[in-house]
Design goal:
Blueprint (H helix, E strand, L loop, with lengths): L16 H13 L14 E3 L2 E3 L5 E4 L2 H4 L8 H11 L13 H13 L7 E6 L2 H16 L3 E5 L8 H6 L16 E4 L13 H18 L6 E6 L2 E2 L5 E2 L2 H14 L2 E6 L13 H7 L5 E4 L10 E6 H4 L15 H16 L2 H22 L3 E7 L2 E6 L13 H13 L2 E2 L1 E3 L5 E4 L7 H18 L1
Parallel strand pairs: 3-15, 5-6, 5-7, 7-10, 10-11
Antiparallel strand pairs: 1-2, 2-3, 4-12, 8-9, 11-12, 13-14, 14-17, 16-17
């Protein structure tokens, strides 16, 4: 059986001797601030599976934190990169033109769910760069200085995007921070105050956003509102459609640009190519869309898409960069998009979601330690609470999550925590996972819950 079709298999202690030798070298040469959750060394990987140098095989439900939607080592990507590597690696787009940049930008423009008839696209290298460029574009176009972001947000680790990110563990000791960033409360419905639900909850969170206009940045000084369709680090919390619609209306009323950070939700993860496809269908698409992570199958590439009306107003010289739209990354990205469209990866995400959410929902009934299950498409989270405090208390249980994550690793399943309180287990498995692999992962996951709760 090929690695692509394999199931989890642990045959040595973890880490094994060969992996441990590499990890010892890592400890000597890398700063400890770059943390590693697992003592896992990759020897090779295919599909949704990773093999370490000691022959242990793991099912990956983290996928480089959302980078591997298409899966590891897909032959079409390997061939596309190999072919381009034989021509040239790099073209600096301010000096020469890489035709693959143009071809891929045209293809993204054709599918990007943003406001406007004609769409233009720029590329960068990381999600943080894409988000930072979106802010620069919004400020340049509107002539306004301020940006509104949300509780629970994660937008990156540059100076600006650290400021935009809510969790201060990601920016501890890094100040002073840039000015002009203000924060509203994100609609975390499971933890809505006073047990608010439905329209009442949506109204509450819209009012909290409007309070930012009153108390922090008046609308006429606000360039953009930036949000994640599903918060990643914040705990896999989906933005309710009615809330997004209401925020879109506020932006239209005040001339503010709405930015959807689809760094993690993009490229089939949500059950559509982009989560903003749901918004466009409802008539409330964002003005600017950012993307990264799974765009190029693991090569560094990110981008910003917006209408020509927006993009053409940006001050020349303020956006761009040396490696933006690297030729090898564009070659891989073209292969990723073709594969996702040809094989209907959004449908794969929806099928995976149906299987997992049915199982997760059954666990919620069975295990009092599970407080909430949620998500959009195959971007799902399970939130764990302290059962002894009662379901109404919703007390986060990060310690239990840590035990489940460690136990799953020992059984060959790679999962990871998320959330403001560290009590959510995220699901970001490659969408090429086989039915047998998915079933094996769910069985391991449940066994760990039974064992540790």
């Amino acid at each position: 059986m090929s690695l692509r079709e394999a199931l989890p298999k642990i045959q040595t202690e973890l880490p094994g001797p060969k992996a441990k030798a590499v990890l010892d070298r890592r400890a000597q040469i890398m700063p400890p601030a770059i943390k590693s959750i697992y003592p896992l060394v990759m020897e090779r990987a295919e599909g949704a599976m990773i093999e370490d140098p000691d022959g242990n095989v793991f099912l990956d439900w983290v996928g480089g934190v959302g980078v591997m939607n298409v899966g590891y080592t897909q032959p079409e990507l390997v061939e596309a990169v190999r072919e381009q590597a034989g021509k040239y690696f790099h073209s600096m787009m301010n000096i020469t033109t890489n035709p693959l940049y143009i071809e891929y930008a045209e293809q993204i423009a054709a599918v990007a769910p943003v406001q406007g008839e004609k769409v233009k696209v720029m590329f960068a290298n990381s999600g943080a760069e894409a988000d930072e460029n979106a802010v620069k574009i919004a400020r340049s176009v509107t002539g306004r200085p301020n940006i509104i972001v949300f509780s629970g947000a994660f937008h990156g680790r540059t100076a600006l995007t650290m400021t935009m990110t809510a969790k201060k563990a990601y920016s501890l000791g890094m100040g002073p921070f840039p000015d002009g960033i203000y924060r509203a409360e994100f609609p975390y419905l499971y933890r809505a105050p006073g047990g608010l639900e439905g329209d009442g909850a949506i109204k509450y969170y819209v009012n909290k956003l409007e309070e930012v206009f009153e108390n922090a940045t008046p609308p006429q000084y606000t360039a953009a509102i930036v949000f994640e369709p599903v918060q990643g680090e914040g705990g896999f919390v989906p933005a309710p459609l009615e809330w997004v619609k209401a925020v879109r209306a506020l932006c239209d009323k005040h001339g503010i640009l709405l930015v959807a950070d689809e760094v993690q939700t993009g490229f089939s993860r949500s059950g559509r190519l982009f989560a903003s496809d749901y918004y466009k269908e409802g008539g409330f698409a964002p003005d600017i869309l950012t993307f990264a992570k799974s765009v190029a199958g693991g090569l560094p590439l990110s981008g910003v898409a917006a209408s020509a009306e927006v993009m053409d107003k940006v001050t020349p010289g303020t956006i761009g960069g040396t490696y933006n739209g690297n030729a090898l990354a564009c070659a891989s990205a073209l292969a990723v998009l073709k594969k996702m469209q040809d094989e209907d990866y959004p449908a794969k995400a929806r099928k995976i979601a149906d299987t997992c959410m049915a199982r997760f929902a059954s666990w919620k009934e069975k295990y009092p330690v599970i407080g909430d299950v949620r998500g959009l498409g195959a971007m799902m989270g399970v939130e764990f609470i302290k059962a002894e405090d009662g379901a109404e208390a919703k007390t986060p249980d990060a310690a239990l999550v840590g035990k489940i994550v460690a136990s799953a690793w020992e059984k060959g399943l790679i999962i990871e925590s998320a959330g403001t309180y560290g009590n959510v287990i995220r699901f970001l498995c490659p969408l090429c996972v086989t039915d047998a692999q998915l079933a094996a992962g769910l069985d391991i996951y449940e066994a760990c819950i039974e064992e540790k709760s």
